Amino acid sequence: MTVRTRFAPSPTGFLHIGGLRTALFCWLYARRHAGRFILRIEDTDLERSTPEAIQQILDGLEWAGLDCDEGPFFQTKRFERYREVIEQLLAEGKAYRCYCTKEELEQMRAQQIARGEKPRYDGRWRERTDSLPGVAPVVRFKNPLTGEAVVDDVVHGRVIFQNSELDDLIIARSDGSPTYNFCVVVDDMDMQITHVIRGDDHLNNTPRQLNMLLALGATPPVYAHLPMILGADGAKLSKRHGAVSVLEYRDQGFLPEAVLNYLVRLGWSHGDQEFFTIEEMQSLFDIVDVNKSAAAFNFEKLAWLNQQHMMRAPPARLVPVLRWHLEQMGIEAADGTQLEQIVVAQRERAKTLREMAVNSAFFFRAPDAYDEKAVRKHIGAEVPALLAEAVVALERLEAWTAAAIHEVISGVAVARGVALGKLAQPLRLAVCGGTVSPPIDATLAILGKAETLSRLGRAQALWSA
RNA sequence: GCUCCCUUCGUCUAGAGGCCUAGGACACGGCCCUCUCAAGGCUGUAACACGAGUUCGAAUCUCGUAGGGAGCGCCA
After folding, report:
1. Angle, to 10 degrees, between the axis of helix A402-416 and the axis of helix A383-396?
2. Which nucleotide is nearest to A421 (CA to C1')?
3. Which helix (H) or strand (E) holds A189?
4. Are strands A148-153 and A157-162 parallel, antiparallel or unpaired?
């Protein structure tokens, strides 16, 4: 039997990082077992579902590279099918119409809570066959009164629920529209889902779904309930924790493979390994290795992993991403070769591609000011003469490569009897306006001879005065 | 309130009864490397929630306690 997993988000907001983790585990499990990954949009809540949210989810998954094999399916397009199954259950006596009003139910709940009981429907219409004129009924599923629902969860082990704890849930609203728990059951059955992998906030829904599946004569899927992802403070993940939407990570300069690598290690591990390529995740991931406890999101570790991925990726992989971030800053960088050199020079000194773009702006824009503190520290009385000598030597240089530049600069330093730093820092300051850049030889090589000399000239004029 | 779930360094985790003087990673501190910043190397601080029990032996098994979370909707 081929493995079939599904990711079933509801389009009531953007795709958030917890949802992406769930999607990732579903996707990895399907890929690992040469199965199928199915995308299903659970949009039965007509009030809150929006087309923008649907697009956001699709964009997020595409950016992350989690491609689906089937779908997206939309529950709103399957209402006829749900109606059919509801009729079937009604006809078989496995469901019934309930004419309770919302007010009546609310009162029931209030009384139960007052008595310290678990609020639940008491089944007062379960055996009635009459109707109440003027009231549009809901349809309820006849949950077994006795016995137990046993969920053999891959991550939690066997979890047993007493049927007596469960009530008869509504499967069709008074307007006839089907409800979430019911749609899930019909869809998982129709789509022949073999493994339901989802957040463990759904663990409590599982016994109801299991009972409905059994009532419909379907073979229940394997269940795996993943631990939740918490904010850095250990509280439930929300907007105030910063980036929650998947697309924000793209905008902040994270690589999708790094985000996935970070997420896969939340709740899953493979010995002591921290770095995983997508291919490694696909071949190593297994739900039996998922642990049970919730994990707090840690931006520093994500940033570290992002850098690790940047350092190991082929430079050409990063070029278009860096170009995009530069464009966001109003910098048009046409020369791909130069961008590739920048990537190689900068990737070990930036955690994100956005940071790399910021750090690399000076390659495209001559500094309009020099860091004052640095000028005071590095531009002493001896610097103009030192710089002048370096400029002369650089002007003579034909082969403008990092190695040749290095030779020239260290040659000047040695000749003047000063440490390389005494020359490198003034050069750096002149060329990029600050004290931080890749090694000075590489920096000048990337900048080009003409631009280097032009910037040095400007600085000389200023510092000689 | 009731039901269900969870509990190893600050954080992510390794750990399937002796291999644990509890390992790795992020973060943090120190040292090294060094033209700046990084990256890298070495190194340090730091955890089995608590209490019983089972066992020759428990982070690992059982039961309690405490703390955290989820669910209990004509939301998904």
Report:
1. 140
2. B35
3. helix A180-190
4. antiparallel
Write the DSSP symbol of residue A133: T
Supply the DSSP symbol for A217: T
CA A9, A14, A19, A24: dihedral to nearest 10 degrees? 90
Q: Which amino acid is at A255?
A: L
Q: Which one-letter amino acid corresponds to residue A162?
A: Q
Q: At residue A373, what are phi and psi to the nearest 5 degrees?
A: -60, -40
Strands A138-141 and A95-98 turn out to be antiparallel
Q: Which residue is closest, via its CA, to the C1' of B35?
A: A421
Is the Cβ–Cβ distance between A1 and A34 less than 8 Å?
Answer: no
Omega cis (within 30) before A439 = no
* N residues, chain A: 465
> Is A292 a residue of the active site?
no
Residue A155 near residue A291, CB atoms below 8 Å: yes
Q: Are A224 and A159 in contact (CB under 8 A)?
A: no
- Which protein residue lies nearest to nucleotide B7, measured between its Cα and the C1' atom? A293
The complex scores an ipTM of 0.95
Identity of the amino acid at A151: V
Question: What is the rounded distance in angstroms from the CA atom of residue A356 to the CA atom of residue A253?
Answer: 9
Other C-beta atoms lying within 10 Å of the C-beta of residue A161: 18
Alpha helices in A265-370 (DSSP H): 278-284, 299-312, 315-328, 336-346, 353-360
Geometric angle at alpha carbon A262, from A259 and A266, rounded to 5°: 135
Token look-up 């059955």 returns A189
Per-residue model confidence as pLDDT tens digits over A240-277: 676 689 999 999 999 999 999 999 999 999 999 999 99
A6 φ, ψ (degrees, to nearest 5) = -140, 150
Q: How far: A349 CA to B20 C1' (Å)? A: 38
Nucleotides on strand B with an atom closer than 7 A to protein CB? Answer: 1-8, 10-15, 23-27, 34-40, 68-76
- Choose, from A77, A94, A102, A239, the residue flagged as catalytic: A239
Provide, in whole angstroms, the distance separating residue A124's CA from nucleotide B67's C1'. Answer: 39
d(CA A375, CA A100): 80
Q: What's the pLDDT tens digit per position in A99-156?
A: 988 888 988 888 888 887 788 898 888 988 888 888 899 999 999 999 999 999 999 9
